[in-house]
Design a protein that fits this description.
724 residues; alpha+beta; Alpha-Beta Plaits; 4-stranded antiparallel beta sheet
């Protein structure tokens, strides 16, 4: 007589079965389509990215305004390269003729502008320089390589050729970033794969987790690429590299948390569908809270004056969004599809009796022993670890983050850097990278006199389209005439009542002395409303904006993350302590990094953005692990009391958080394969800081401090007063 009941329940069971099969299939196919569309864009990021510093400055900066006027005065949109020819001894007439012929023939090289200057001999007779503009739409790296090769072949014996100047240094950056699509991604994925193999001792599970991360990156790149294509945001090689690493690291971390929950559930249930749903319910809050915290911290970068910083915020946030979505949709679908076999050969056993006897927490193993150690001596542990962290943080003051010369941006051999040294030995150091001054036509001579009176300026000229060289020298007596005696001086180019002066710096354009010259000139020229631009001015404005951003954004990030933690943990005291421990960990990471950079690697300093980026990633990502830990501690505290909840939370999350920390440290360390000083320094700071946070702060300091305080850690919530 159960026919009616059976007939009504069977369709429901069938519907549930179809949903359980169809939903994972749809999710997997959707991610496959997204990855198929985004994957081919890995080799095309250069089409929509730019590494030109000027494009990242605020429009109000003097250097930006001058840059926008250059094309109007010069009727050209080109990047200047400087060819330097240095003889083993004084150059002979025959050598000079051969050098000039080589320079004249360089216009035949694809990408080289027709406006090539003749060779300019040095006063000591041992060198020649020539200004060779490179068209802005040319493939800069290929053009510079071809130019250097052609000039070396055409130059006489006994002459060494260097290609330097803005185009030379830009080509170095292009070459430095060339490994992002292949080398960086390959090293990061290999490092993560090896760690996952060692952690899980499984073949299939690391592939599933890495597929989750790689699919997230492909779809994130698809969205970012088109937004850059539509000029909604700016993309640079630096931002691209950080996006790749951040998505791989974050998606893997979120996946590890989900896998740990899934494995837990498989021990107490045989139904892989039920285990998947339970793992999803247990993971969504910490993953969403963790990702939301990182996104909130990254979006604080929108307050930045520098577009290189402000554009990183949305780009990286898009990456984190897809990292979360992939871990909460694609990964569950894959785990449901494979079930227990995903852990082969160490499949989790179905042992509900053992789980019940453990009350959900293992009593054996490393993390159980560590939890008991924290329980025995909590005060000694947190005081000792805090003291060690403070000692490490003492080195923070040794980090010179006031900026570095353009010639030091690329690590390793650099023809542009060698060429700049040779240029400085035989010509004024700032040759080819002049200071540009835009001033009213009526104040031309007054501005020229100010430039000429400055010891940092070797010579002054004014842009003049009628001049054979495009400019005319200016002295205290006015504009110098060209041509035979008695020739009238050429007229300067005038645009909207303004003229453009060019001052050749006596020091290298990227030196501290040249930067000080620009600052001095701005002060002296301010009364006549002149604006100063050029390579050196761009560097000065970039450093100033970066320092402003650092001082503004770091406090804002702290406040935003503190508020999020208060909402998440329903407490005031716990979030404040978590923020303080994370900031202390950041200070230690920066202090140790300063000692390593200065004492071991002998780096020339650091960009002002290095501490800002280090702070954003270490604080936002460091809080991740505290969120993983403290959300589980709060969950256990509601059932077992605070101190017992701390021990249980540490035991349960210890393995997964440590694995996640190793993965994130390895992925950021992979940035060091790109020979760009900024990325190498950021790689060390974040990798070391993550390991410090994983093995010291989250493992020892936070649990011991929380245990010593007890239930008051949840003040002022009911849980802090001993109420459920």
């Amino acid at each position: 007589m159960h026919t009616d009941t059976d007939s009504t329940t069977r369709p429901r069971i069938r519907r549930r079965s179809w949903v359980r099969i169809l939903l994972p299939a749809v999710l997997i196919i959707a991610w496959l389509v997204g990855a198929g569309l985004g994957g081919p864009l890995f080799g095309k990021v250069g089409e929509v990215s730019s590494n030109d510093q000027t494009t990242y400055l605020p429009s109000s900066a003097d250097a930006t305004q001058v840059q926008s006027l250059l094309g109007e005065f010069n009727d050209a949109d080109a990047i200047p390269a400087i060819a330097v020819f240095v003889g083993d001894s004084d150059l002979t007439d025959d050598q000079l003729v051969a050098i000039n012929d080589a320079i004249a023939d360089s216009v035949d090289i694809e990408g080289v502008s027709d406006e090539v200057s003749p060779g300019i001999p040095s006063e000591d007779g041992k060198a020649v320089q020539a200004f060779i503009p490179i068209n802005s739409d040319a493939e800069l790296g290929d053009t510079i390589d071809a130019l250097g090769e052609e000039l070396r072949e055409a130059s006489p014996d006994g002459v060494t050729v260097y290609i330097t100047g803005p185009a030379g240094f830009s080509a170095d950056l292009v070459a430095g970033f060339s490994g992002i699509d292949g080398l960086l991604l390959g090293v990061a994925l290999l490092a993560v794969f090896i760690i996952l193999i060692l952690v899980y001792r499984s073949v299939l599970l690391p592939i599933v987790v890495l597929s989750t991360s790689l699919f997230a990156l492909c779809v994130a790149l698809l969205v970012v690429w088109w937004m850059a294509k539509w000029e909604i945001l700016l993309l640079s090689g630096q931002t691209q590299g950080i996006l790749f690493i951040l998505v791989i690291g974050a998606a893997t971390d979120y996946s590890l948390l989900f896998v740990a929950r899934f494995r837990e559930e498989l021990r107490s249930t045989q139904d892989k569908g039920a285990a998947t749903i339970a793992a999803w319910k247990g993971s969504i809050e910490p993953i969403a809270a963790s990702g939301g915290t990182v996104i909130a911290g990254l979006l604080c970068l929108l307050l930045s004056d520098l577009k290189s910083n402000s554009t990183l915020g949305p780009v990286a946030s898009i990456g984190i969004v897809f990292a979360m979505l992939s871990a909460l949709t694609l990964l569950p679908a894959l785990l449901f599809t494979f079930g227990r076999s995903v852990f082969w050969p160490k499949r989790p056993a179905f042992e509900p009796e053992v789980v019940e006897a453990e009350h959900g927490v293992a009593t054996k193993g490393l993390w159980a022993r560590l939890a008991r150690g924290v329980k025995r001596r909590p005060r000694l542990i947190w005081i000792t670890t805090t003291a060690l962290l403070i000692i490490g943080a003492a080195g923070f003051t040794q980090l010179n983050a006031s900026g570095i010369p353009q010639s030091e941006l690329v690590i390793g051999a650099s023809e542009a850097r060698d060429g700049q040294v040779a240029l400085g030995e035989h010509f004024p150091g700032g040759s080819g990278s002049p200071v540009y001054v835009v001033v009213d036509e009526g104040s031309l001579q007054e501005a020229a006199d100010i430039l000429l009176a400055n010891d940092g300026i070797d010579s002054v000229s004014v842009t003049a389209s009628d001049s054979p060289s495009g400019s005319a020298p200016v002295t205290e007596d006015g504009i110098t005439a060209f041509g035979p005696p008695g020739t009238e001086p050429v007229a300067p180019s005038v645009v909207d009542g303004e003229v453009m002066l060019q001052g050749t710096l006596t020091d290298a354009a990227d030196s501290d002395a040249a930067a000080q010259t620009v600052r001095d000139l701005r002060g002296e020229l301010d009364p006549i409303d002149a604006i100063v631009g050029g390579v050196t001015a761009t560097s000065v404005d970039t450093n100033d904006a970066s320092i402003h951003d650092r001082n503004l954004i770091i406090p804002v990030i702290l406040v935003v993350i503190l508020l999020i933690l208060m909402l998440l943990l329903r407490s005031v005291l716990a979030p404040v302590l978590l923020i303080l421990t994370t900031v202390l960990s950041f200070g230690t990471a920066m202090g140790v990094s300063a000692w390593v950079f200065n004492g071991i690697f002998d780096f020339p300093g650091a960009d002002p953005a290095v501490p800002l980026y280090g702070f954003v990633f270490l604080v936002a990502l460091g809080i991740d692990y505290n969120i993983f830990l403290m959300t589980r501690v709060r969950e256990e505290s509601l059932k077992h009391g605070t101190r017992e909840g701390i021990m249980r939370g540490l035991t349960v999350t210890g393995g997964v958080i440590t694995s996640a920390g190793l993965v994130l440290a390895a992925t950021f360390a992979a940035l060091s394969v790109i020979p760009i000083l900024f990325l190498v320094q950021l790689a060390f700071i974040v990798a070391f800081g993550v390991l410090l946070d994983t093995f010291v702060v989250r493992t020892l300091l936070v649990p011991a401090l929380s245990y010593d305080i007890g239930r008051s850690i949840w003040w002022p919530s009911k849980l802090g007063r001993g109420k459920p």
